[in-house]
Amino acid sequence: MSEDAAFAPRPLDRDAPFYVAGHRGLVGSAIRRTLEASGFTDLHGHSSSELDLTDRARVFDALATIRPRYLVLAAAKVGGILANDTYPADFLSVNLQIQTNVMDAALEHGVERLLFLGSSCIYPRLAPQPLKEEYLLTGPLEPTNDAYAIAKIAGILGVQAVRRQHGLPWISAMPTNLYGPGDNFSPTGSHVLPALLRRYDEAVATGAREVVNWGTGSPRREFLHVDDMAAACLFLLEHYDGPSQVNVGTGTDVTIKEIAETIAELVGFTGETRWDTTKPDGTPQKLMDVSLLRRAGWEARIGLREGLASTLAWYRAHHEDLRT
Fold first, then answer.
1. Does domain 18-178+223-248 have CATH number 3.40.50.720?
2. Where in the sequence numbering do the catalytic residues fall?
3. Which of 3, 124, 156, 216 is the most buried (most CB within 10 A)?
């Protein structure tokens, strides 16, 4: 297939083999749920204990056996700011290995449509808000997670290179901050939204009258429910084809204080929230421009309050397992 070969996005064959790399993670599990609900009958995936995606030979063997027609690459080594800043070599090496192995094997074994999932951290640290796809590679990255970001940028360029050299209609999607069932609620390793949800819920359970949060509460963040992210991935596979990565988000943001107030109300916390202004706020704003996705015909459907309520219900149903 030549690099200018015509491809018209169309509904995917529900009976064709479909591989989700990283199907146990927050995003991958949501994608698998969405695919099952959409009628896909031949879904595949391996846990990390079943298949180490850094083992190139085993990755090639796995895809040779499955011969997937479609593939979503959601597998990655992920972590918070501290982990990224402490182990940059690990984040760079492991993610490059995963991406290269899976993409090379997908190319070798004829995967028709591949969707690579990145991260909003690919954009320059001081890029204008909201973040547009065209801002990629226009400035220095955030130093605390630049190694992870470089790996994700390499994945985007890998997709673009396959399109140019082999003419395959592979695409990339860049999600904003995600949350939902299956999130990481660890007291030390979670992101801001699940951390707040756990903190307020535990305050209610213990009868605490005060919750202390870091910073001023003024930074603005965008949040997308992971089920919306999964729906966007299927939509893009069936309706979008182009070399540019596509931002996936809501296009709106809220302050951390507003998030905290909503969570406090949902969990039934009636005490006082105090903000420790000696602690850092982080980036003042991080908002994605989702114009390209909207022009393609997709918008997020799950409102923040609705999404928080369902995530709280999931957390309460599983919190005993999460406290290990």
1. yes
2. 148
3. 156
